[in-house]
Amino acid sequence: MASVTRPSRAAVALLVTAVVAVLAAVAAGVLRPWAAPVAEVQQASAEQSVITPATIRLPDQPRVLVFGDSWTYGSAATPIHRGYAYVLAELLGGTTVVDGGRGSGYLRPGIDRPDFATRIAALDPTADYDLIVIQGSINDRHSPAQGYPTAVNAAWDELVRIYPDAPVVVLGPAPQVLPVEPATARIDRDLASLAADRQWWYISPIRDQWITPENYATVIDTSELGRDHPSVAGHAYLAQRLAEALHEITDPVTSVEASDGEAAEPVAPALP
To answer: Angle at which helices 148-162 and 182-197 pack, to 10 degrees?
Structure first.
């Protein structure tokens, strides 16, 4: 695993440039207006009220574990520390510990690391995290749907066993191609439902249309080197969208507390 802390002003300037490039690419298109991620669960009876996960309390300079597949690893980012999970630390003003496994998923072992549950079982139980973000994965789209919920729950159960006090946010798969593949859409629905069962926040790049026909060419590197992973600008854009989504579900009290401390570094402009 790798960790990254709050960057210099020069590093933030590079992030701003990358995000501006993505925004310029979609200027002629229409992005879906930003909305807070919805993680409400409709109960069996229509008369019952929905259940909304509790807001997350984050300290100033939070320590966040970002766990996932090759997107979390930083594939196609040059250098790799410009991957979205690393850039997220800059936007949160804290530290991210990045644990990405290329090609891995809940059912599928990766190129050089095992499946999610096996990797989670090997995490450091002495580590202390203010938040855990578990991302992906599209890598299970070629595996049978049967058994998928069981594999996801087994991985999540292990995560809770190791870190019982850390809030967990599930970041669903983002499309590497458009239109979204049916199997990827199915994974998105399954993860949303399973997260709702636990009253965990679920952030869906598919539902919230983070990647659209208008910005696809800038966000995704389709070259032989990129192999349909986010470009450097794409990683910066995804980090910005994730940071905004996390802000929407963070207790405003903690935001007030953080504002009393050191002034934050300037970050990339908000998305439309």
So the answer is: 40
